[in-house]
Design a protein that fits this description.
This protein is mainly beta. Helix content is 5%, strand content 44%. It has 2 helices and 13 strands. The longest helix has 5 residues.
């Protein structure tokens, strides 16, 4: 799937009940991506792909429960555990200014002043703010960069860069 057209919005992490309900981990924590009638594209660990239409979705602890007509039984739901969920970017609600999808940030090259820190390899959600894990390819050193306006300066998705000003404590 082309990342310019599709966005990974979550992952199926388990089943719930006997009627084909799946437990979904959302990358954004936002239920808007899982609105009734939206189409999701599923990609399995081996690259196999499926399509499903959201029948309903509701919060359930740290996850969402999701029902789709294509997943009518527990067996059908169990068969897609581990699959990633993709949505068409065009079908997603518009982002607020200075807001980005995680998938667009992972892989950016991060600089502090003019010093190369590395690339964003993952993002850790926390109650206060996200934390970008920046890994130096040469040394393997990880730097935790808080996703705060006071730390993160310019983000240029087209150039694949992020400029940060790390606090002295980091």
């Amino acid at each position: 799937m082309d990342s310019s057209e599709f966005l990974c919005v979550g992952k199926i992490v388990g089943v719930h009940g006997i009627r084909g309900t799946v437990r979904v981990y959302s990358h954004s924590g936002d239920i808007a991506e899982f609105s009734q009638g939206n189409t999701l594209f599923l990609r399995g660990p081996k690259g196999d792909e499926r399509v499903c239409t959201i029948e309903w979705c509701k919060p359930h602890g740290r996850h969402f429960l999701l029902g789709a007509p294509e997943l009518g039984s527990r067996e059908q739901a169990a068969a897609v555990v581990g699959y990633e969920l993709f949505a068409l970017r065009a079908s997603l609600p518009p982002l607020e200014e200075d807001t980005y999808y995680w998938e667009d940030l992972i892989g950016l090259t991060v600089f502090d002043q003019k010093t190369l820190l590395g690339r964003i390899t993952s993002i850790i959600p926390t109650p206060g703010n996200d934390v970008y894990v920046v890994t130096d390819a040469d040394t393997g050193k990880e730097t935790m960069v808080p996703a705060l306006k006071s730390v993160v300066g310019r983000i240029d998705l087209a150039a694949g860069t992020m400029q940060v000003t790390l606090p002295e404590s980091l």
